[in-house]
Structure formats: structure tokens, C-alpha cells
Amino acid sequence: MLGMNEQVRRTVRERMKQQGITQTELGELVGMAQPNVQRLLAGRVGAVPESWQKVLDVLGLELIAVPRKEG
After folding, report:
1. Where are the domains of the chain?
2. CATH of domain 4-59
3. Long-range pairs for 5-8 at CB < 8 Å and ≥24 separation?
4. pLDDT of the residue at 32
5. pLDDT tens digits, residue range 50-63?
6. CB of 56 within 8 A of CB of 62?
7. Phi, psi at 45, each rounded to 5°
8. Which of 39, 47, 49, 55 is the most exposed place for a label (fewest CB within 10 A)?
9. Which residues contact 26 (CB under 8 A, 6 or more apart)?
């Protein structure tokens, strides 16, 4: 089972691929250097809520809480 941070990273990477956005382009859109985007996506830096919110906003994603499926 994936942790929440890994789920967010995977979803962001998938959306970037769908939209054809590179790490450099995403960095420019959210005001982050490409190496910092790479670290964020790789999980090498803590999930800073403001940074993630900018990334989610640019990609048209929102973080929502839903009940877990039992079983």
C-alpha cells in the first residue's frame, strides 16, 4: 500500500506526462528551480504543503480526503 505522499507524487507525475509538462516547465510555473521539483517528486524533501499546493494548482489537481475502502 502506498503512503499518501507517494500517491501524490505518482498522480503529479502522471498528470505532468499527460499534459506534456517537464520538470523545468513545472518549476517555472510554480516558482521553483528544476532540481527542487525533482527532489519534491522523488520524495527527497519533506512534503511542504505550500509547494505541493502550487504544483497541484498548476496541473489542475486537488487533494481530497475520501474514506478508505475496506477489505
Report:
1. 4-59
2. 1.10.260
3. 5/43, 5/47, 6/43, 8/47, 8/52, 8/63
4. 92
5. 778 888 889 998 88
6. yes
7. -125, 155
8. 49
9. 16, 32, 37, 55, 58, 59
